[in-house]
Amino acid sequence: MKWIPWVLAVAAAGYCLYWLLRVLTHGGRTRRKALRIKMQLEQVWAEQEGVSPERPILVDSPSVVEPKAESANCPNCEHPMRVVEHTAETRAGRRLRVAYLRCDICGDERALFFALKK
To answer: Is residue 57 a contact partner of residue 49, using CB atoms and an 8 Å limit?
Structure first.
């Protein structure tokens, strides 16, 4: 009869270990799923016009650049981004307007490229 408390203690420890492992592996699954979603959002962002100097967004005037840039959402947290700086630069022999964006929620920084219609 002296062995009953030991059996119960071992069983309780095994049960706790089972639940601990289950929680840890579920957390890993959740992190992997979140990482996969983030990678998909990055792919969607990369396919948009304006994310590279080779595929700028065409605009009629420079005054349209900032409102268009601020309509972009952060690919990480889906929060609207704000324009930190708006510059005119020459990239690959083309005169472009560049809007540097920052997300207030996650701090992600991006650049959007714009070209004036001729």
So the answer is: yes
Q: In what order do the strands lie in the sheet with 57-59?
A: 57-59, 109-116, 94-103, 81-91
Element (H, E) at 39: helix 4-47
Half-sphere exposure in the Cβ direction for 62 (13 Å, CA): 9
> Any idea where the domains of the chain sit in the sequence?
1-47, 49-118
- Tens-digit pLDDT profile for residues 29-53: 777 787 888 888 888 888 888 888 9
- pTM equals 0.69
Rounded distance between C-alpha atoms, residue 12 and residue 68, angstroms = 60
Please check whether residue 63 is in contact with residue 118, taking contact to mean a CB–CB distance below 8 angstroms.
no
Q: What sign for the dihedral angle of Cα 56, 64, 68, 60?
A: negative
Question: Distance between CA 53 and CA 20 in Å, rounded?
Answer: 49
